[in-house]
Specification:
single chain, alpha/beta, N-(1-d-carboxylethyl)-l-norvaline Dehydrogenase, domain 2, Rossmann fold, 3 domains, six-stranded parallel beta sheet, 18 helices, binds uridine-5'-diphosphate-glucuronic acid, NAD(P)-bd_dom_sf, EC 1.1.1.22
């Protein structure tokens, strides 16, 4: 089928590439000329395992094209996906200006029936707004073209995006007529061979499903962080508690890892947006507010552990802190809402100096922090340890999992590790004469 995708961010680029990989003819449209030029020359704007070779292969085969020419692209599409950003507005609601701009461009330019698919994470009711915008644009040029609007939220995870997209655990389709569902079935048939992963429903339910999924996952994390904070105070070890509860299949092993707080482009934004939607319809979403508040507090938790270790925030003045992990999670260079950002800000404010290392996010950190005094981004994990007093770990990259504790003992003048991801066994670290502060591990 002929597919057009607006937006070459995470969702758009990965979806477009995977649809091309299974044989569809895909045109990705973006307004960013440099990005489109780069993609046409094999420059992939994000780090995502497995994505670069797939983009290059499909581009070379002619099934995956990149353009800034929205008008020409629209003429080619049977199905047009909207996968542009919905950044949070000042009040926390999702900003729909980019989604609606695409809708009007579609209305201004379609000449034959199409299906317009919302893949961006958009509040309940957005499909209606997209439909109204397309109708408005059609009317403005006295045209009448049949179109459908479908909600098809994306559930891929950064770092696993290609895998999630090629082997989805579910494909949610919200539509208001069977014909549209049938077209979506054809699009997704290659992903749906062995058993039917398609869940069809009305449009509003599909829109809400996306927020419910992310809010549930964020809730699990904030819940565990809250229990971890209690564990610290009652002298319990959250890692034992985690294993003790995860074995109950109703709770499950996934997403119950306490840490330095959740970040990324989705959870913080989506929890806020859902809370805002609730408020707009006259419901105070207490749980969502608490999920967010707990997460916000958790982002300062590593700093608080450091203050506890050193006795006061003043005692951090002049300390050299080695920081491992800047990205909001491993296998990505994304630092949106990353806990490292809060920690670095607090450390610099306290007068400490930070040498930070991340396997992929160095360029992003340099872009975000510029030449701020007191922060140096270094190219290797060992470089961060030079003259360091303490080590703090914020992201659980695999390469941090089994360090040479002897070497760390020699490198760290204050012989202390702060671990925001509970990577080590306390007894092992302490056995090397290092103090070890982790999350929720009773001290
Ligand atoms: C999240 C969802 O997991 C995807 O299903 C969803 O499609 C995506 O948002 C989206 O809406 O686009 P993502 O933001 O890429 O995916 O990252 P996650 O792997 O979910 O991690 C989010 C944050 O939670 C990270 O900061 C991670 O460190 C933290 N986390 C995760 C924990 O602190 N504990 C856990 O047990 C799991």
């Amino acid at each position: 089928m002929k597919v057009v995708i607006f937006g070459t961010g995470y969702v758009g680029l990965v979806t477009g590439t995977c649809l091309a990989e299974v044989g569809h003819d895909v045109t990705c449209v973006d307004i960013d000329i440099a990005k489109v030029e780069g993609l046409n020359n094999g420059v992939i704007p994000i780090y995502e395992p497995g994505l670069a070779p797939m983009v290059k292969d499909n581009h070379a085969s002619g099934r995956l094209n990149f353009t800034t020419d929205a008008v020409a692209a629209i003429q080619t599409g049977d199905v047009i996906f909207i996968a542009v950003g919905t950044p949070p507005d000042e009040d926390g609601s999702a900003d729909l200006q980019y989604v609606l701009k695409v809708a009007s461009t579609i209305g201004e330019n379609i000449h034959r029936p199409v299906i317009v698919v919302n893949k961006s994470t958009v509040p309940v009711g957005t499909a209606d707004k997209v439909r109204a915008e397309i109708e408005r644009a059609l009317k403005a040029r006295n045209a009448s073209v049949k179109f459908d609007v479908v909600s098809n939220p994306e559930f891929l995870k950064e770092g696993d995006a290609v895998k999630d997209c090629m082997r989805p655990d579910r494909i949610v389709i919200g539509a208001d007529n069977e014909d549209a569902v049938m077209v979506m079935r054809r699009i997704y048939a290659p992903f749906n061979r062995n058993h039917d992963r398609m869940v069809t429903m009305d449009i509003r339910s599909a829109e809400l499903t996306k927020y419910a999924a992310n809010a549930m996952l964020a809730t699990k994390i904030s819940f565990m962080n809250e229990i971890a904070n209690i564990a610290e105070r009652v002298g319990a070890d959250i890692e034992h508690v985690r294993k003790g509860i995860g074995s109950d299949p109703r709770i499950g092993w996934h997403f119950i890892y306490p840490g330095a707080g959740y970040g990324g482009s989705c959870f913080p934004k989506d929890v806020q947006a859902l809370e805002r939607t609730a408020t707009q319809v006259g419901y105070r979403a207490e749980l969502l507010g608490a999920v967010e508040a707990v997460n916000d507090r958790q982002k300062s938790h590593l700093f608080e552990l450091m203050v506890r270790h050193y006795g006061s925030a003043q005692a951090l003045r002049g300390k050299n802190i080695a920081l491992w992990g800047l990205a909001f999670k491993p296998n990505t260079d994304d630092m949106r809402e990353a806990s490292s950002r809060r920690l670095i800000a607090l450390l610099l404010e306290a007068g400490a100096k930070v040498r930070a290392y991340d396997p992929e996010a160095a360029h992003e950190a340099k872009r975000i922090f510029g030449d701020v005094a007191g922060l140096e981004i270094v190219p290797r994990a060992t470089d961060a340890l030079a003259q360091a007093d303490a080590l703090v770990i914020v992201t659980e990259w695999k390469q941090f999992r089994s360090p040479d504790f002897n070497a760390l003992g020699h490198a760290l003048a204050d012989r202390v590790i702060f671990d925001g991801r509970n990577l080590y066994e306390p007894a092992e670290v302490e056995g090397h004469g290092l103090a070890y502060w982790a999350i929720g591990r009773g001290r």
